[in-house]
Amino acid sequence: MRLTHGTAVWLMVVVTLMWGTAGVVTRHLAQAHSFEITFWRSLFTMLALLVILPLWRGPRVFSQLRRGGRALWISGVCWAVMFTAFMVALTLTSTASVLVTMSLGPLFTALAARLFIGHRLPARTWAAIVVAGLGIGWMYGTQLLGGGGGSLVGTLVALCVPLAGATQWTVVQHAHAKGQDVDLVPAVLIGAAISALVTLPLAWPFRAGLHDLGLLAFLGVFQLAIPCVLSVLCAQVLKAPEVALLALLEVIFGIALAWLGAGETPAAPVLTGGVLVIGALVFNELLALRGRRTTLADSALPGAH
Questions:
Q1: Contacts of 104 (CB under 8 A, 6+ apart)
Q2: pLDDT (tens digit, 9 = 90+) per residue, 22-77?
Q3: What is the C-alpha to C-alpha distance for residues 184 and 70, in angstroms, rounded to an integer?
Q4: Long-range contacts, stretch 114-118, CB < 8 angstroms, 24+ apart
Q5: Span 165-213, pLDDT tens digits
Q6: Tens digit of pLDDT for each residue in 73-111?
Q7: What ranges do the domains of the chain cover?
Q8: How far apart are the C-alpha atoms of 228 and 250, rounded to whole Å?
């Protein structure tokens, strides 16, 4: 299935809107607690992918799990960290804090390229890292000085998402350098399975009723599994800076939906820090898009979470 450029752009917008529903849906859960929320979402994601992937890729997709090698399974562990940390963070702090922290992914990936692959970063990327660091520092500092212990812990947990994403990218690039092709779609399935397995003991005893299970099924299928597949299709057509820019819409959609749909007003320091982070990312990716060549650091795709 090959999309036109215009269709891929609009489809990526829809993907970010689906990703952005996590916060508002989570705020309407009545009984499920943090690790139970993570378990059910990961379980429903796994079940959905077990149906979607054979229909999309054919039965051979399961043989890739056996032949994928160490890089595939490390990638799966990284996905599991992202899935788990994202949902746990949402239960500890605001949607805005989680999404702004997660948006650091491309910059962490660029740093990983410099540290572990030896790729020279352009000046624009260093400038973006400094500005984004100031924004995150402002968020963390105000939470710490303001006594927002829970908010600070939640933001620190959310930091695991971009760190795991950068780790995964480094592993995949290292495998490619050795001539090994790592298919990220089966890795997502592995990640969902590991996340469900690890959080199962922590999720017990279950408290979710039918209302909560319905919302968690929505998160697993429509907030994660389906947009994950669609984002892969979009990434086959769009340039990496285009994907990175469009992925930032998740921050806007997520904050707006939580604000309008759950009355979660973002704190002023989060908005200030968010403006610095998002502004730095937009500046960096726009300049990358204008360039004639896309560098390794620019080629990291946003991960599902």
A1: 132, 136, 159, 162, 277
A2: 999 999 999 998 899 999 999 999 999 999 988 888 877 777 777 777 888 898 99
A3: 13
A4: 114/297, 116/170, 116/174, 117/170, 117/173, 117/174, 117/296
A5: 889 888 888 777 777 777 777 888 999 999 999 999 999 889 999 999 9
A6: 898 999 999 999 999 999 998 898 899 888 888 888 888
A7: 5-299
A8: 13
Dihedral sign of CA atoms 58, 59, 61, 63 in order: negative
142-156 burial, b for 16+ CB within 10 Å, e for fewer? bbeeeebeebbebbb
Enter the tokens of residue 277: 């982070």
